[in-house]
Structures are given as structure tokens and as C-alpha cells.
Amino acid sequence: MSILICGSLAFDTIMTFEGRFAEQILPSQLHILNVSFLVPGMRREFGGCAGNIAYGLRQLGSDAVPLAMVGNDAQDYLARLQGLGVDTRYIGTTSGNYTAQAMIMTDRDNNQITAFHPGAMSQAHENRVPTDAGIRLAIVAPDGRDAMLQHAQQLSDAGIPFIFDPGQGLPMFNGEELRRFIAMASWVAVNDYEGKMLSDRTGMSLSEIATQVNGLVVTLAEHGCDVYADGAVVRVAGVQASAVVDPTGCGDAFRAALLHGLSQGWALARCAELGNRLGATKIACRGGQNYTL
């Protein structure tokens, strides 16, 4: 089964701050915030939600079909994806823009501060969902605002079930728009912070949101995740990582596992168990696309 991944492809510049953000940022001085962090460690990685999810799917042996937009600086990235066996037919290239760039700074407690330049991602809505490519399952992951809106509608119109994964793109949408996403989606996946924001903006509790879809998953970092399905909520225990090296891309690894399991017809809780395992595997490696099973 081919799985369509609507989301971003990006280059990640990952920096390591050896202190704690909380020790450098004074809450009483936020109105005149002016801070600088010394980051001895820095590297550049392939990233973006669509790229990370595609990588995870290929690790699990599933077919991955990203729907994304890149700039004319992405030749190496496209070659890498093709080398992994990822179908790149629906990745568009636009001139005059860089591929999206994320600058991610992580402190010693694995807190992160991210600056994101959307670049070519802002034109991702120009790529339409392919309805003649044998797609049977999809995810709408963080991407350009118009792309997320239009791709969700196109998937719904085509009758293709999909996971709505708003991620860091959630603040771009108001309550009405988010309720529309939920109405079109088959599943919703958020972390605990995003779940609170989703509830606040839609005016619905997590239990109420779960009644609108086949299932809702709320990840809880090392504590595992809560799975809402069939009128009940189940806590799926977390998996201890062999080492905590880099959280970048853990959520995407989890979502790759969800998609893989759903494509196999698994129950949502079983999909989440695999998600916790894949997330634990990823967090022990640097970057979003360097772990192996």
C-alpha cells in the first residue's frame, strides 16, 4: 500500500547548547528579551516532517510517497530519498526559493528553540494530491498553511483516509478551521501540548474530538501516549531509550509507525506501541534520519 505524506522537506541545522534555557531566560524580563547562546556543537541534517516520516516508513518496509515542494538547492536531498527507495514523483521544485530551513537549538534538558524559514514550502499548495497513484492512506503533516488546508480537502474529496498531524503548524489555524480538519480526518495525532491547544481552539475536549474520528493519539514523551478509540482511552507505556541523544524527529518516527501499522490493519493501540519503540530508537541517534532498525 502506497502511503502519501503531505508535509515539508527541509534542511535542519541542529545546534547543541550545553546549558539550560531556563537559566538564561528571565521570566520577569521577557518584554526586553535579548539572549545569546554559545553552541559548540552544530551539524546539518536532512529533515522536514515529510522527509522524516518517509525515512521511518522505509525503515519499516512500507512504501512512502512524499507530496512536498523544495527549492533548487535540494538535489542532494532528492538523490538521498531516491536511494532509500522513496517515490519522489510528487516532490515539486521551485526556482527562486531555498528549500525550507529549520534552525534547531537543544539544551541539556532536551528543550528546543526552533527558527524556521519556509522557503519553497510556502508554495506546497501548488502540488495537488494524486488521485490516480494507488494511494490508500495519507497524513497531513506540518506544511504551508494553504497546502495543509487544500491537501486535507483533496484527500477528503478523494475518499482517502488520513491522519491529521498539525504539529508546529497548529497555531496557524483558528477553531473553525481546526474543526474542519477533524471532520475530514480519520485519525488525529498530537503531543500533549498540542492537544491542549487543539482543545482550547476547537472548544472540544480530547474525548469529544475522539468521537469525531476513528482514533486520537496524544503522545506524552517518555511516558508513552494516550490512545482514544472505540469510546475508551488507553495509556500505552513508553519505551526506555538506550540513550537520550537528540529528540529531533522523534514525533515523525512515531507517526511513521502509526502509518505503517494502520496500513497493516492493526488496532490503533498496537500502532502506538510500535510508535513508542521507533521513537525510542530514534532518540538514541542524532538527526531525524540516521537511525536504523
Order of helices and strands: EEHEHEHEEEEHEHEHHEEEHH
Mean pLDDT: 95
Biggest sheet overview: 9 strands, mixed
Strand order of the largest sheet: 5-4-1-8-9-10-11-12-13
Enumerate the spans where pLDDT stays under 50 for 5 or more consecutive residues: none
What is the number of E strands?
Answer: 13
Rg estimate, integer Å: 18 Å
Oligomer: single chain
Q: Beta-sheet strand percentage?
A: 25-35%
Which overall shape is indicated by the principal axes computed on the Cα atoms? globular
Number of helices: 9
User: What is the rounded distance between the termini?
Assistant: 21 Å
Structural class: alpha/beta
> Which bin fits the share of residues in helices?
25-40%
Show the helix and strand layout.
Layout: E1 2-6, E2 10-16, H1 21-24, E3 41-47, H2 49-60, E4 63-71, H3 75-83, E5 91-94, E6 100-106, E7 112-117, E8 135-140, H4 145-158, E9 162-164, H5 175-184, E10 187-191, H6 192-202, H7 206-210, E11 215-219, E12 225-229, E13 232-236, H8 250-263, H9 268-283
